[in-house]
């Protein structure tokens, strides 16, 4: 569920070869080991519980055998969380950032090297969201907004846009103070990938997210075309 623009959606060919197939050696220009951080709302919002995913991408020297990641302050003085990493390098955690503070992820690899990545600087305004597309008929969106300020104690009207391939669908919802739940019928969303954007009445972007809607795609069969490569 990595966040990215609809223009970045792509198909990729996967080549299946036997164990004797010789590939070109990787060059020294290969990217160093690093961590990609993806807040679920596409932003970090101060004072709200944020859901954040990340992936550790190793290089040839570090290898993939890492099991934990540390969330610390920027000076590496305070350990905030110890986060498990899947065998594929994925991890997820929850964080309520303080105003004006930044954080980092730190991974110690099997060869003893340290890989660090700063989290994005938290924004003072915006929403934190969590999206669950597992329900059979609806996309469930939990929207969290802060209680501070007069407007936070009253209902708030937002515009939710679903867009893909130049097409767009607009919906309007009223949010309760604090935490609200929005249920989007899957039949109203586009089949496949959807980009969801949430705006306030002044059209300020508050959150955005990519999700997958499988409705209407039951008849699409996955196929792998394998071509024998001659010597």
Structural commentary:
It is a single chain. By secondary structure, the protein is mainly beta. It has a 4-stranded antiparallel sheet with strand order 4-3-6-7, with no helix packed on it. It is flat, with a radius of gyration of 21 Å. Mean pLDDT is 84; it is low at 24-29. It is built from no helices and 14 strands.
Give the gist of this structure:
This protein is an all-beta fold and 231 residues long. It contains no helices and 14 strands. It is flat, with a radius of gyration of 21 Å.
Question: What brief labels describe this structure?
Answer:
231 residues; mainly beta; 4-stranded antiparallel β-sheet
The chain-level structural class is: mainly beta
Q: Please write the string of helix (H) and strand (E) elements.
A: EEEEEEEEEEEEEE
Q: Tell me about the biggest sheet?
A: 4 strands, antiparallel
Helix content: under 10%
Low-confidence stretches: 24-29
Which value, in Å, is the CA radius of gyration?
A: 21 Å
Number of strands: 14
Number of helices: 0
The dominant shape is flat
**How much strand?**
35-45%
| Chain-averaged pLDDT | 84
Oligomer: single chain
What strand line-up does the widest sheet have?
Answer: 4-3-6-7
Give the N-terminus to C-terminus distance in angstroms: 40 Å
